[in-house]
Sequence to fold (614 residues):
Amino acid sequence: MSLDKATVAKIAHLARIRVAEEEQESLAGELSQLLDWVEQLGEVDTEGVAPMTSVVAATLRRRPDAVTDGGHPEKIVANAPDAAEHFFAVPKVVE
Amino acid sequence: MTSLTHLSMAEALEGLKARRFSSVELTEAHIRAVEAARPLNAFIKETPELALEQAKAADARYARGEQRPMDGLPLGIKDLFCTEGVQTTAASRILEGFVPPYESTVTANLFRDGAVMLGKLNLDEFAMGSANITSAYGPVVSPWSKGRKVQKDTAEGGVLSELTAAFRQPAPVTEWEFERKLVPGGSSGGSAAAVAARLCLGATATDTGGSIRQPASFVGVVGIKPTYGRCSRWGIVAFASSLDQAGPMTRTVRDAAIMLRSMSGFDPKDSTSIDVPVPDFAAAMTGDVRGLRVGIPREYRVDGMPAEIDRVWTQGIEWLRAAGAVPVEISLPHTKYALPTYYVVAPAEASSNLARYDGVRFGLRVEGKDLKEMYENTRAAGFGKEVRRRIMIGTYVLSAGYYDAYYLKAQKVRTRIAEDFTKAYEQCDVILTPTAPSTAFAIGEKMDDPIAMYLNDVFTVPANLAGLPGISVPAGLASDGLPLGLQLLGRPFDEETLFRAAGVLEQAAGPQPLPPFLG
Fold:
């Protein structure tokens, strides 16, 4: 699998990481090399094999639908780069 | 009392109990060792005041006749564990200045049992790496690097130096000139270097594809990744949630048993934590492996493996045989597919886990003209190259049109790999392999070729994919004078057999030489 610059730009957009135009070419090479290497998984016969969903044989536990924690908004926003009162502040998203 | 830093945990506990020394004395000795070892760059943040406070509390308990399982033992904590009120960075620029308002379950368990925290240890950024060279705080230098002490005059004077002194921790009194800086392995490179250099009695670490066991092998210490679900992942910065497990790094097998017992336990806050009793792992170290069936997987003799690795492996087989164990040849036919499987599954999970770093709730923010540009600028500036590479691979294999071909296929191969182990354990009780395919290499090597770097984990990754426990035990030095480890893999939740067999290997290997940094 060989990725082109346009695909790299698309992945970067999906991942929300700005990648400078001049870096796209080399990144396309690196990512293509990795994808070529994982292509060997195609050799394995996985007909009728269920994809792994959990490494331990355990079913997810249930718990009572009850509030067990909360009431400390100041701790929640303490690390925010920008906060107003008890809200996270972000650039304007609605015109 | 430098000798205090050379004690094992078990010895230190005895000494504390007998009141031969106090936890404050033990902790002060380690704080001095940490200061003198700054050239190794093992710590991202030192917390000496907190350590002394905790040590005083431990001493007060001893004075009252109480003793907790790890009371007064100074530890290092990998900077991937959230520690309440103490900066936690995952060695990433994107988390710089992040001060968790909560404590990870594993560190809370250790503090409940009386442990003392000396500081937060360096690691590969988000635990992604095998050499501790991707940290935003610079690489960790292995204490096995040869070098010499150089006295530096720090009294330069002037306003500028006074200013820097006011904002920085005290400058080191001695510096090191290294001939060749070796890597300590990764991602738990700070943990490995700190334990090997006697900066702490033990350290927490995490293992997603070998990040406890491979560095343990590189620096000649013990490291165990327990069964998936044994230690709670709550409060550990997530990399790949279906593979991440916490575990201890220590200098003896018994210490690993003591520390793992404290770290383990069911936690309702982690939905994958398993509700099973935590055994007294140290009590399992009976020294008796008579009749134990030790699987030797033929697929682990990989092409181009140095003869030295094969020699140590054969030696390990002979040690166990001499103690009465029975080596059995086994087959794990899908071994060669473990690494490519891992490099689909782990990046996929990482791309999802790391989506939370968006400049809104914590960490770095780089402004942009709108919200989307703010996300993109923040993530471009905050993530290093290796992390970016893995997020992008993960994003690609999960994207529409490629999900089945890459991610689903890899999860099917993963089932095959787990089945290999289930079948193998019909014929054997533990599996013995080399831990890593080489000894430590120098900082700067293997950096241009990601796949060459990934091959470091060829023997350790399968246990993560199958959720199995694995321990690395020092097995002496290779001809290049550097440590090599042997790995034992066990059945799910059978760490006891691992400790039993590991104790026998440790005994047979005998006392291990000190790293040159301590020479």
Notes: The two ends of chain B are 16 Å apart (CA to CA). Chain B has 16 helices and 13 strands. The mean pLDDT of chain B is 94. The domain at 2-282 of chain B is CATH 3.90.1300.10 (Amidase signature (AS) enzymes).
